[in-house]
Amino acid sequence: MQKVEQRFLSYIQHPTTSKEDADTFPSTKQQLDFAHFLSEQCKEIGLAHVTVNAYGYVFATLPANTNDAPSIGFIAHMDTSPDASGENIRPQIITNYQGDDIQLNGITLSPKEFPSLLDYQGETLITSDGTTLLGADDKAGIAEILTAMEYLILHPEIPHGKICVGFTPDEEIGQGADHFDVETFGADFAYTLDGGKIGELEYENFNAAQAVIRIQGKSVHPGTAKNIMQNAALIGTEIASLLPKNETPATTEGYEGFYHLCAFHATVSEATLTYIIREFDETRFQEKKSYLQKLVDEKNIQYKNAISLEIHDQYYNMLSQLKHRKEIIDLAKQAMENCGITPIIQPIRGGTDGARLSFMGLPCPNLFAGGHNFHGPYEFIPISSMEKAVQMIIEIVQIAAQKS
Question: Cis omega before residue 70 (within 30°)?
Fold first, then answer.
């Protein structure tokens, strides 16, 4: 199990930040470089049919050693979030953590703010140094998958069907499934290892859309502007103020949806508001989009059609694809319990590659990778959670083979 830690510490040294609005796929060359590195890792441990395609997807297989078992896929993403730097990551190893504050460069990782730290007293934690993210999202998932594959190769007495391994680029910018070839991947069903704390088992996620509001103002000299000026910035603030104040990320949890103002760029002459809309329930999802359209239509009457709205759906709730495949959920749940892990079944307040892949014909719930506080310098991961993830993968394939 020491290998999962070593792999993780090695992988986070490869910067793989994805970049929004890039004109290439993958969005950064660093991801493609890492893909080729991982393909060599796959070959070194003995996986078969290792490929890296032009889009940077890494596929590999572990051939079956028993008949009639299902073909199971395990997927993780290679990129890290553009929300924080992923360059020159300097991990800190905190041994025998005792529940106290962890001082990093310029920040404090404190159980007062992050009470989940107290769940890992006496354990070894890996943190960033406070200046970058750590990269457990999702290089922990990659390390766990490859460690489990190596273990299965070294222990051929463990029965398993064909196992399909996939590493994807650009998940953090919502494009991880854009060029994923489900047929070539070859699994009957799969799991992403892209969840948080130990025990997470997720098969519901947001329905998601992006909305871009553009406002065309009329700029004249403010000294002679009466009844002429149309201030795009002020119109934008009016629109933002009319959306429900209790439906934002900071005021919602669980199954509650929201409008999130991601960016607001404005002058007198023009303004752009970029929103994301999130909702679990499909009816409420449509209602949220309709409400925003109605709001813009009403403002266009007031401001002489100066406002445009573009809404496009990004992904959908995978529950609609998985609710009739309960055996896939039950398999993961049983594997966790066999490994002494208490399953935590909850909705994802976000999305994963698995959500889109489920709609592409590959049922794909999400499992924990073990990390906490993703996308920023407070990120940490207990080594024991990575070890348990490795055990869970091995148990999943073994149970599936035994049942078949």
Answer: no
Annotated active-site residue 287? The verdict is no
- pLDDT tens string 292-310: 999 999 999 999 999 999 9
E strand or H helix at 7, and its extent?
A: helix 2-11
Q: Which of 5, 171, 200, 379 is catalytic?
A: 171
Quick check: 15 and 30 in contact, CB under 8 A? yes
What DSSP string runs through 89-133? ---EEE-S--S--EE-SS-EE-TTT-GGGGGGTTS-EEE--SSS-
Residue pointed to by tokens 């009319």? 242
Given 79, 137, 170, 279, which residue is catalytic? 79
Q: Which residues contact 54 (CB under 8 A, 6 or more apart)?
A: none
Q: What are phi and psi of 48, to 5 degrees?
A: -105, 165
pTM of the model: 0.90
Tokens 């990269």 locate to: 135
pLDDT average, residue stretch 16-24: 93
Residue type, 313: D
Q: With the CA atoms of 388, 393, 399 and 402 taken in that order, what torsion angle do they form, in degrees rounded to the nearest 10?
A: -130
Residue 68 has pLDDT above 80, yes or no: yes
In whole numbers, what is the pLDDT of the chain averaged over residues? Answer: 96
What 8-state DSSP symbol labels residue 374? T
Residue 274 has pLDDT above 80, yes or no: yes
Among this protein's residues, is 79 annotated catalytic? yes
Strand order in the sheet with 48-52: 48-52, 58-62, 163-168, 72-77, 189-195, 366-368, 200-202, 344-345
d(CA 280, CA 186): 29
Strand, helix or coil for residue 322: helix
Per the CB < 8 A criterion, the answer to whether 291 and 263 are in contact is no
Rounded CA-CA distance 60/52 in Å is 9
